[in-house]
Structure formats: structure tokens, C-alpha cells
Design brief:
globular; about 240 residues; Rossmann fold; about 50% helix
């Protein structure tokens, strides 16, 4: 919204809406939540629901890194150096970017972390940083789903590139196989949605990220969500987990 000086240029409706949102949020308990689950388990569907219901900010580390690089923040400059060399951005850098983001007013009530931590080492660094701030992770939502269900979910996805319309060969098929309902143009499958790519991503998830769930289980903050259920039922499970 810009600095306070520019507030007079903001339409009244927008100001009132933001004021009402903040008043509603003032009574919400603060929460720091991590979403863990394999690709396609529905984390992206649930995070906006959690964000709005609990007034949290959504920290997607990939997006935050790109934003820091574009904004040329000190951490962003370091991250760009690593990326330009083809190296992975260090865990300390990512945690530093999360640390910076947490200071924003939108993160006042806490955050949802998605896509991080992916390893136990990252989880330990994140916990160290939070401890310095006098906070900790309140809940880790483990989106549990069978690999076979995921494969059916993901490899059946087809997209109409120019409009972004999505179809599923089993759950939401187009009227004519392989063609968009509106334009009749061919549908494509994203590179990430093929069985081979999914297999390697799932292997990486089981190898690296499942130990993160065990790490947080020892701290008694993990709640398992049955991610194969329809989205509304998953939302109910998520809300139940976050209210306990």
C-alpha cells in the first residue's frame, strides 16, 4: 500500500476492508505452521484457506528468494551469486530471508512455511533462528498420501497453455480427449507432471523430507492430514489440527 503519506490515495473501500481484516485478525492467536507433503498432495490448495482463516503470511521460500534477488537485498545479492555459479543457495541464506520476511506487518500473527525445511539440517537452523526470536513452530501439518494416488492425480493433469484451464483425464476430462473445451486447441502436459519426473521427486521427498516429519514428531507438533480426501474434507482436518 506504500508509505503512510500515500494512504490518502488509497480508495476508502480498500482501506475499510483492510481495517476490518486487521480488527478480525487482532483476536486470532498467533501460529507458526509448516506444511509438509509430496508434490501434488494439496498443500497449495489448503495454504490460502489457512492464511485467511488465521491471518498468517504465506512464506514460499522459492518466491521469497526470487523476490530478494530482484529487490537486490544484501541476502538477495548473495543468493544471486550462488545461483549464477549454479550452486544451491545455502540454508543460512534461506533462513535469513525467512527471518527478514517475518518482520513484515502481514506476518504479525505468524506464518505458513511451504517448501521449507526440506531436510533435518534446515529444520534445525530454522528452529535456532526462531529460538533467538523467542518463538517456535506450533504445528507441522503432514499431508499424507499414497504414492499411487499421487501418480494418478498428477500424471492425469492436462493444461490449456494460453488460458491456464486445467483438466484431468479421470476427474475432470475435456469433452474431446486432448482438446480444450472452449477453443478446441490441443492440451499439454507440464514437464513436471510426467511419471518419470514425479518418480524422482517422490524419491527425493521420501529420502530427504520424511526425516523432517520424524524430527518434529519428537517435539509433539506434527498433525497428520489424510490428503487423499476431497479438498473440503482436508480443510476440515486442517482446521481441527490447528485449533488443538
Amino acid at each position: 500500500m506504500g508509505s503512510a503519506a500515500n494512504l490518502e490515495d488509497v480508495p476508502s473501500n480498500d482501506l475499510m476492508a483492510e481495517l476490518m481484516r486487521r480488527m478480525k485478525c487482532a483476536n486470532k492467536p498467533s501460529k507458526r505452521v509448516i506444511l509438509v507433503g509430496p508434490p501434488g498432495s494439496g498443500k497449495g490448495t489448503q495454504s490460502p484457506v489457512i492464511k485467511d482463516e488465521y491471518c498468517l503470511c504465506h512464506l514460499a521460500t522459492g518466491d521469497m528468494l526470487r523476490a530478494a534477488v530482484v529487490a537486490k537485498t544484501p541476502l538477495g545479492i548473495k543468493a544471486k551469486e550462488a545461483m549464477d555459479k549454479g550452486e544451491l543457495v545455502s540454508d543460512d541464506l534461506v533462513v535469513g530471508i525467512i527471518d527478514e520476511a517475518m518482520k513484515k506487518p502481514s506476518c504479525q500473527k505468524g506464518f505458513i512455511l511451504d517448501g521449507f525445511p526440506r531436510t533435518v539440517a534446515q529444520a534445525e537452523k530454522l528452529d535456532e533462528m526462531l529460538e533467538k526470536q523467542g518463538t517456535k513452530i506450533d504445528k507441522v501439518l503432514n499431508f499424507e498420501i499414497d504414492d499411487k494416488i499421487l501418480e494418478e492425480r498428477i500424471t492425469g493433469r492436462w493444461i490449456h497453455p494460453s488460458s491456464g484451464r486445467t483438466y484431468h483425464s479421470k476427474f475432470a476430462p475435456p469433452k474431446v480427449l486432448g482438446l480444450d473445451d472452449v477453443t478446441g486447441e490441443p492440451l499439454i502436459q507440464r514437464k513436471d507432471d510426467t511419471a518419470e519426473v514425479l518418480k524422482s521427486r517422490l524419491e527425493a521427498f521420501h529420502r530427504q523430507t520424511e526425516p523432517v516429519i520424524n524430527y518434529y514428531s519428537k517435539k509433539n507438533v506434527v498433525a497428520t492430514v489424510h490428503a487423499e480426501k476431497p479438498p473440503k474434507e482436508v480443510t476440515t482436518e486442517v482446521e481441527k489440527a490447528l485449533s488443538s
